[in-house]
Here is the input.
Amino acid sequence: MQQTTWFSRFAKASSRFTGRPLSFTLAVGVVLAWLLTGPIFHFSDTWQLVINTATTIVTFLMVFMIQNTQNRDTEAIQIKLDELIRATQGAHNALLDLEELDEEMLDQFRGQYAALARKARANSRRVDFDTGTPELGR
Here is the structure.
């Protein structure tokens, strides 16, 4: 198994930390401290620039960390779904790695499954539940 990079480990740890209530509380604390220092600094342009700069830098860096975490999570989910498709008897292996197809091919697959869904919904009005599979043509 491949070792994760320092950035992946850092992004994952940062994502976990920043998603907790403690982090939100700390951020609120920083904003409150900034607000309370307003009168001390006479609400100067520099006082306003401090919070603007700090929030811009944090936001800019968080975008990259969140995107990295999101990409890894999405890839892991896709691999797990691919394994479920591969291991399920009767599943369509053509659906493996769908996310790599171009828009035209995705639209074709989407159309096929939309048609199956319409047919299943129409049939479900006549029976209690839908257990049809594409192979059975139901």
Summary: The first helix runs from residue 6 to 18. The mean pLDDT is 87. Residues 90 and 136 are 10 Å apart (CA to CA). The two ends are 42 Å apart (CA to CA).
